[in-house]
Amino acid sequence: MTPRNYVRADLAAIKAYSPAAxxxxxxxxxxxxxxxxxxxxxxxxxxxxxxxxxRYPSSNAQAMRVALAGYIGMPVExxxxxxxxxxxxxxxxxxxxxxxxxxxxxxxxxxxASVFARVSGLRPLLIPLTPAQSPDIEAMIGSGVRMLYLCxxxxxxxxxxxxxxxxxxxxxxxxxxxxxxxYAEFSEFTAIPLLRSYENLIVTRxxxxxxxxxxxxxxxxxxxPLLAAEIEKTRGxxxxxxxxxxxxxxxxCNDRQWVARVVAEVRENRERLSRELRQRGYEPLDSSANxxxxxxxxxxxxxxRLAERSIAVRAFDNLTGIGDAIRxxxxxxxxxxxxxxxxxxxxx
Length: 348
Ligand SMILES: Cc1ncc(COP(=O)(O)O)c(C=O)c1O
What we know:
Elements lengths: L8 H4 L13 E2 L13 H7 L2 H5 L7 H11 L6 E4 L1 H13 L5 E6 L3 H9 L3 E6 L8 H5 L5 E5 L11 H10 L3 E5 L20 E6 L12 E4 L2 H9 L8 H13 L1 H24 L11 E5 L3 H10 L2 E2 L1 E6 L3 E7 L3 H15 L1
Parallel strand pairs: 1-10, 3-4, 3-5, 5-6, 6-7
Antiparallel strand pairs: 2-8, 7-8, 9-12, 11-12
Helix pairs in contact: 4-10, 5-6, 5-9, 11-13
């Protein structure tokens, strides 16, 4: 027997996630917050005693959930926190559908949604975006699956789904609907108010993007209390570590003005970058997130050439309906200018 005899064939077929060019000086590949972390973080970490680290944190991140509930205006029983929204999405896939069931996922969308589905023995049913780069709502409603995943603003395209389309899905789809709002702060859109009318909705959020805490791994779901309790049951306690819980609670209470300033700058720089790229003949997709998707001829080659100049972007090989593309995180303007200069150097 070799170790290979013990692996699950379906799991062996899944490629492990690999970050783009991790050694580049300028990393525009992962849509994190390029302005850094919010101001209250340092003091909270400095105040933490070693004693707090020697003990387990609260079993379900109670204090942080209270803070998050205040931030989104929902009761705390509706909030479940986890180790990044990756963990939350993974837990949802395990909580409500059985191995062998199918989950409908727009294509292209957040690649880990399909991965988590497959790891849980589910069948991802990929439904191509329409030519306008929106989810095919009718196809999703009629897909006959048990669960739908939607992402708004969508990664990697950046487009938002209208509230009317989401309500149409919630009212007409016979199953649970996940709305992944990892980038919600950058758009003016949230489906959270619909939770008061629809019990088949689970909204997932993260502190990794606008709140600048990707390294602490904090995500959360907002849904009916019964569903939140079921998600909690799918994993062990203590998914949110003690440092993350304290810092997470602090930033959602104390750092919202900082986040608002970052969001305003992202929007300004996103439109400026888009204009600059258009002047160079590119056609970036309209985005409501902190990134732009740029269809290009040979994405891998371009990403490698940018990496030679120490700039990391995410390359996509032949995205459905789009073809090759690179995704660029929007950051402070000097970083954007460095990216444009590098592009100019490559093209020249
Ligand atoms: C759409 C979307 N959902 C979820 C995540 C996962 O974020 P995290 O696990 O850091 O909360 C990401 C990360 O890039 C994302 O783009």
